[in-house]
Specification:
With about 500 residues, this protein is of the alpha/beta class. Helix content is about 35%, strand content about 15%. Helix 14 (about 325-330) links the parallel strand 12 and strand 13. Pfam families: DEAD, Helicase_C.
Length: about 500
């Protein structure tokens, strides 16, 4: 089947020809006719299969030449979980609709709201939005839904994972009951199906890829490595293989920033995108990466949604994700649109649990290759899982020590008697003992913390010791010869 046989307009066919697209992907071949027929659609397709064009093409066809909307009104609404994905969907609308008269715009948080209000004032045919910013604009009477004809939920599974379910339900309650609903997702969990029951009416169900599977053209490799040498191995792989446009996944925003600094120190041009970056910063870094100005892009799972590069050759998991489905999304960034790609995971012993979960879901065992020069110092199975262990709560913040009363009162381990000072930690016990002593004093109000280093605070009036009424005993002081060193 070709696009010419699907009933698309001349303008859309010309735009597709400009992109050298002649044959629809499986998701497009099934979704486009269903959407053009006016039916509700529930489609599951893995990342990189062309599902965005699967709903933007028929949407542009339906809306072209229709009745003009009034101020603040829209005819179609596309909801996405992230700013990057919203921008990518809007770019797709502009690419395919350049020979049409369909008016579209994209709105999301992290930027000023007033320009978005001005755009909506004249009315739109298609609005691409993130749920939070859409609700903000609705509450300011900048957008209305009386003329809405089509609703699209893109990456619905991720929207639920990010906690948007309440905003989505609020938005659904504002929409006219008579409309076409399209639900697209990389995977469908039980929670997604529950949402679909109340949203879709007799939907056409499309399942192009089996549940929780990875793209066939992705070569997956595991490199076991000691955790302390992960960054060194990453730099080694990039330099020795002369890789370019490498997308690296980090589990945390702090980890992403730290990784960029270490790569830059090794002479590798890198940048990071995550939730703590402003939208202009994220847009700039992503643009530099797509244009080849950045060799490496380090991203968190949420920020990576919307990264759409047809020829992205390498995806590296610096950390394995805690959720197996996120692994599917990650490596789906490569091998897009029929291209081939490689997904490399750096496996340290503390992440064996995550690996087993991923292999169980994918029903496969991934190939393990030790890189010469990075042989393990100990077996992976012998490494304790320190990453998933629950962090110990600091006493004084909801986890009191046994025998401890309220702050400032006597404790069993610091017995106070009339005319005697509490015993101090001797200097020969080292910096760690001194730091713990200072931490105990901090909990009683005698120090403050500047970053991770304790700093002396102004002394408060000493509280009398219980039972003897003696208020002359001073608080314990730090030994003059003990140097405080942060152990955090």
């Amino acid at each position: 089947m070709s696009f010419e046989n699907m009933g698309l307009s001349e303008g859309l066919l010309k735009a597709l020809a400009d992109q050298q697209y002649t044959t629809p992907t499986p998701i497009q071949a099934q979704a486009i006719p269903a959407i053009l027929s006016g039916a509700d659609v529930m489609a599951s397709a893995q990342t990189g299969t062309g599902k965005t064009a699967g709903f933007t093409l028929p949407l542009l066809q339906k809306l072209d030449g229709g009745e003009r909307t009034r101020g603040g009104q829209i005819r179609a609404l596309i909801l996405t979980p992230t700013r990057e994905l919203a921008a990518q969907v809007h770019e797709s609308l502009k690419t395919y609709g350049k020979y049409q008269t369909v008016r579209s715009a994209v709105i999301f948080g992290g930027v000023k709201i007033n320009p978005q209000m001005m755009i909506l004032r004249g009315g739109l045919d298609v609005l691409v939005a993130t749920p939070g910013r859409l609700m903000d604009l609705y509450q300011q009477n900048a957008v209305r839904f009386d003329q809405l004809e089509v609703l699209v939920l893109d990456e619905a599974d991720r929207m639920l994972d990010m906690g948007f379910i309440r905003d989505i339900k609020k938005i659904l309650a504002l929409l006219p009951p008579k409309r076409q609903n399209l639900l697209f997702s990389a995977t469908f969990s039980g929670e997604i199906r529950e949402l679909a029951k109340g949203l879709l009416q007799n939907p056409v169900q499309i399942n192009v890829a089996p549940l929780n599977t990875t793209a066939d053209r992705v070569t997956q490799t595991l490199h076991p490595v000691d955790k302390s040498r992960k960054t060194e191995l990453l730099s080694h792989l990039i330099r020795t293989n002369s890789w370019y446009q490498v997308l690296v996944f980090s589990r945390t925003k702090h980890g992403a920033n730290k990784l960029v600094q270490m790569l830059e120190r090794d002479g590798i041009n890198a940048g990071a995108i995550h939730g703590n970056k402003s939208q202009p910063q994220r847009t700039k870094v992503l643009h530099q990466f797509k244009n080849g100005e950045l060799q490496v892009l380090v991203a968190t799972d949420i920020a990576a949604r919307g990264i759409d590069i047809d020829q992205l050759p390498h995806v590296i998991n610096f950390d394995l994700p805690d959720v197996p489905e996120d692994y599917v999304h990650r490596i789906g960034r490569t091998a897009r649109a029929g291209a081939e790609g490689a997904a490399i995971s750096l496996l340290s012993g503390d992440q064996l649990k995550q690996l087993k979960q991923i292999e169980r879901v994918l029903k496969t065992t991934m190939k393990r290759e030790i890189v010469p020069g990075f042989e393990l110092r100990e077996r992976l199975e012998d490494v304790k899982d320190t990453e998933t262990r629950r962090p110990q709560q600091r006493r004084g913040q909801g986890a009191p020590r046994s025998g401890t009363g309220r702050p400032g009162t006597a404790r069993k381990d610091t017995a106070r008697t009339s005319g005697a000072r509490p015993q101090q930690a001797p200097a020969h016990q080292g910096a760690t003992s001194a730091y713990r002593e200072e931490e105990r004093r901090q909990r009683n109000g005698n120090t403050t913390f500047d970053g991770d280093r304790p700093v002396a605070a102004k002394p408060r009036n000493p509280r009398p010791a219980r039972g003897n009424g003696n208020s002359q005993n001073p608080r314990p002081r730090r030994s003059e010869g003990t140097k405080l060193v942060s152990t955090w």
